[in-house]
Amino acid sequence: MIPTITAEQRQKLDEDGFFVLNNVFTPAEMDEVAQRIENLQRQHEEQLRAQGGTQGISRADEITFTSHLAEQDESIKAFCARPEFVTITTQILGPDIDLYWNQSVFKQPEGTKEFPWHQDDGYTAVEPSPYLTLWLALNDATPENGCISVLPGSHTRGVVLHQPSPIGLVCYPNDAPDQGVRVPVPAGSMAVFWSRTFHKSGPNRSSGPRKAYVIQYSHAGLRDAATGATLPDKIPVARGSQPA
Ligand SMILES: O=C(O)CCC(=O)C(=O)O
After folding, report:
1. What's the pLDDT at 1?
2. Half-sphere exposure of 79 (CA within 13 A, CB side)
3. Are residues 218 and 132 in contact, defined by beta-carbon separation less than 8 angstroms?
């Protein structure tokens, strides 16, 4: 379904920093790309195991971040340029859009660990900010299996200080009284949020993996905020609001 962003959704994004777009893809439309993502995720996890289990924030059998999937697989690249994404991103960001970053995030049943509160801008500072994160559920993301939570309104705080921790950068305490709102996302639906929106994901207490594909789109010509240099090799997605 090619989604039209409604006035209510746009207002929610402006005020709360996020909204959910339901039923963007049918299971059949996601089938091939989900298989290809699974294969690349499996290879990444095997590599992790071979080198001791951990690399950066990826931990085998717990949580894996498998990055640059579209850059490795033509079919995933074509998926990221689908008309659904062209329409969503140009309605929100403007006419000229690049794919900035893409990664699968799989959480295995592990019981106890959250992925901590952060802003995506906290990991790498880029300009112009914010860019847009589309968190696409490959299977149903629920409070039980570790769906994301967001802190409404937090995108208006600018890019805040992040502290390192063994499980990822942290910008907000997980024992603060306001733990935001959980955002369950059914398979084929997506959470749409700004790169400045504080978000986290809960522990996976279910018996199966939780699988997401996180796709981030920016204005064309995104720059490194520290050096001002244009980031190389970004995949063009739209020009003049048309598929690039
Ligand atoms: O999907 C998750 O568990 C967390 C992913 C996330 O926060 C991110 O990719 O920025």
Report:
1. 80
2. 26
3. yes
Beta bridge partners of 33: none
Report the pLDDT value the prediction gives residue 112, as an integer from 0 to 100.
Answer: 79
What span, in angstroms and rounded, lies between the C-alpha atoms of 9 and 14? 9
Distance of alpha carbon 200 from alpha carbon 169, whole angstroms: 11
Q: Which residues line ligand 1 (CB under 6 A)?
A: 105, 107, 115, 120, 148, 199, 201, 212, 214
CATH 2.60.120.620 fits 7-243, yes or no: yes
Residue 175: its pLDDT value, please?
A: 96
| Segments in the chain below pLDDT 50 | none
Measured in Å, residue 104 CA sits from the centre of ligand 1 at 9
- Distance, in Å, from the CA atom of 58 to the CA atom of 220, rounded to the nearest integer, reads 29
CA 196, 202, 208, 214: dihedral to nearest 10 degrees? Answer: 0
Looking at residue 113, its pLDDT comes to 86
Residues facing 137 on adjacent strands = 212
Tokens linked to 164: 């390192």
Q: What is the pTM of this model?
A: 0.98
First to last CA, the chain: 20
Dist. CA 16–CA 8, nearest whole Å? 11
Dist. CA 65 → ligand 1 center (Å):
8
pLDDT for 19: 98
CA atoms within 13 A on the CB side of 102: 24
**Is the separation of the CB atoms in 97 and 238 below 8 Å?**
yes
